[in-house]
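Exam review. A common question shows you a sequence with its structure tokens and asks you to describe the fold in words. Practice with the pair below. Do the first one on your own.
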Amino acid sequence: MEYKATTSGNWNEQKTRLKKEFPALTDKDLFFEIGRKNEMLAKLQVKLGKTKEELQRIIEAS
């Protein structure tokens, strides 16, 4: 899964939008560490009850 956000600025904008759309998400949930993207996505899948494909569409929608 690739993100449109390749810089921290773009990811910060996406995090803000995701937290507005899903108030249960925290900064800790959305912490993006290079090389650990799949771990973050797995946590989001569990917390939001979404599939990997659904998350990809949600994230890329910004």
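Now try the second one, then compare your answer with the model answer below.
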Amino acid sequence: MAKIVNLTTFRKQKARAGKRSAGDANAAKHGQSKAEKSLAKARLDKADKALEGHRKEPDTE
């Protein structure tokens, strides 16, 4: 016996798999992961705070 398959579900799963693979390819080609972005931002914020802590006079803006 052949397995009965719902064609609508099958089409949706195939479309999702295609979008997922395209998204993974774009992420590898173009950018950083969310964790890498947040780590870079945290390091930048820490460096800014350290620099601000070394000021002789507070910023008057």
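Model answer, second protein: The chain is about 70% helix and 0% strand. The CA atoms of residues 24 and 30 lie 10 Å apart. Full marks require stating both points clearly.
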